[in-house]
Protein 1
Amino acid sequence: MIKIRLTKTGKKNSPSYRFVVANRRSKRDGESLAILGYYNPRTSPKTIEYDKEEVKKWLAKGAIPTDTVRALFEKTNLLPKAKGKAKKFNSPQGKKAKARGAKTQEKAAAPKIEETKKEEVKAEETEEATKE
């Protein structure tokens, strides 16, 4: 999987970053396929520069921006802003963890369902008792 992410450059205590296209498994400052631009958070205002055509080309090829890169692209109006709650595109959970989460949600909902069934049964019993 190919990601568009930031790689750190600059001296100690004065970081700047490059927008790079890299394999998901490569290190943060490891091998990259292409350099798209740079981001300097220490200037006022923060400097964000990149080649829009290159970014669009890589997005069309299926490269996925990290959450931070997506936010920076949204600030510069390259990507549409997410409506409502911010979406996490890079979920740290794997398939098994997600499945476990669904099971725990079902278990949490099960007692509520049982309680409502018990209440319905009690209501029916009281109705029958009042009819007699």
Protein 2
Amino acid sequence: MDIAAFVSQALPQTIANLQREYPNAIQHSFVAEGEMLTCTPSSLHPAFYGCYDLHSAVHSCWQVVRAIRLCPDGDFVPTAVDVLNRLLTPENLAAEMAYITDRPGYEMPYGMAWLLQLLAELREAEGKPFTAWREALTPLEEHAAQRFRRYAARLPFPVRTGLHNQSVFSLGLAWDWAQTADDTALRETITTHARRLYLADRGAPLEFEPSGSDFLSPSLAEADLLRRVLPQAEFSRWLTGFYGEGMMESLPRRLAPVQVVDPTDGQLAHYAGLNLSRAWMLQGIASILTDDDPRRATILALADSHAAIGLPDALHPEYMVSHWAPIAAARNLLNIAHWFQQLACKLAQRYHPINPLHPSYSTQSVPGPRQSSTPAPSPHPPPAPQRGDRRRSGRPVRRCGPARPV
């Protein structure tokens, strides 16, 4: 399956969910005495009422914009453009701006980070609909950037969960936007405070991952941020201290892929995205390591094993999965064809589903990299540049996709 085939399969569901008002998990803060909530989700959030909650609606808009940019001739494009034209109007977005102006901490950090990611994608796109959406979103973009300047500077300690309030993942998305928008001040702020918050970390407690409702890996997200902000040599040394000298053995064993046990449960369904978020973070970490670094092959193989299990889960039609999980695949569209090839290979070899609650489960049965001191390279393509990568030349790579639609 290539990028176009995957997008054509995933996008209709996302487009429908952006217009689906119920069920809805409104997170509303009452700010005035006597205030009463007597409205529908679409009247409260006229642009971002779908996809169950606001942050899911925002990153689903990002998913649609990215798909249009990479597959401009797809069958889904006319419908997608029409839906975004109806949602991302100046009037709707002015109402969203008025709401968060009264609630400045609303959807921080996760929702505002994805808002910046949406704007970063729009800044890299060309053409009339992209420009109109970007201009209408500009006030929200300025609000989110300002919130992250304060957030990074005021954070006394990291938030180390695997959920929305995790600090390091959102700081990474904000840093990516700062790269694309050429916001030197925010980029330097995040770099300074990433060093303050994370540089001294050693011995990542992998035995505590995952928790029962994670969709992000605390340790991989941390490494994925620091590969952005540290020089290559410094990051390589930090990675050794963070995961230890035996990381080639410990990572595949401790961070084995997981299986969704109940896609109808809003918390347990988070595993539908955990495998793929781990995969893209592993790809990002590998992208900064030199070709002769023996850790690189192990990390890429582990990314493949996560993606092979995560891709079918992310396309599950159950709403507790479909309202958000496809973005985990869209985050790394350029590797979709390779990952489906890996999935086909694993199915052909009849790997059993990995279910940590199944009596037969053991880490020894997890498909993953070969366990040896010098792993043999596998047929991986070079990791696709992640937004914000600093390659060995030291130059920032700003684009997570082609410079122009393909």
